[in-house]
Design goal:
single chain; about 290 residues; mainly alpha; 11 helices; about 0% strand; globular
Amino acid sequence: MLLSRISILAQSAGDSGGLPISDYLTVLMVVAGVAIFVRWLYASRFGRDAFSGCPVRQTNMPVFLPIVMMALWLLLLLAGPGLAELVTVDMSDWQKQFGTFASTAAVEIILIVVVLVIVQKFFAGGLSGFGFQLKNIFPDLRAAVLILLAAWPFILVSLVIVLQIGRLLKGAGFELEQNEGLKVILDFDNLSLRILTISFAVVLTPFFEEFLFRGILQNSMRNIGAGRWQSIIIVSLIFSALHPLTHFSALMILSVCMGYAYEKSNSILRPIFVHLLFNGVTVAMSLLS
């Protein structure tokens, strides 16, 4: 979601012809990520055994339900900021931003509750069958760190490629898009607005988006007969298309990793933690820069 700091690194790489040598943390993460990915290739026989021993989730969700959920989410997202703007029309800029993010957060909280109700009704085993088990927090968090590290080199390379193509097509002034939430965090120094925006981006959105995309959409695809990789790719295409265009390739990589994490572990917490860590790291690196 938030790719500003990685974009900065990608632009530096594009300018200098390679990764910035001075950024030791980035270099270390890339080396560790490549090593983890190579180890996964070996252990899974180049992906042929990627889903060996994976559990099967059972759900009888109606086919139309994911479509209704997506439509409701997009409708509320479109309506929420407009209503917030009407309420905050006479307020300062930071208060208007606060109202916009507060309304969006309220929408996501409501829809999280809706998803949990759906899960309890249509999944065999309820929340447990859905993969929401608090006993898995620490194993899933540890696995999420490794998954994010494995994805990191490919995310960075994809952004460098997008940057170079953009500069070839649109000139040297081309830059990767910046997420709206990160613009607010960097442009406004109001503490309450920053706390709200960071909490929204780093905590709330990963829970909501993983419940919706991995939990509802990916399970729905499996329910109508799509294979595991087919479901992961289709959902990842939708997920990436709903974000800024210049982030598409990077988010496609991240989303495939999160979809795989869910299928492999049968724990919705694992992709949530990958998403949360990714957003948290990029926000932290952007603020430090």
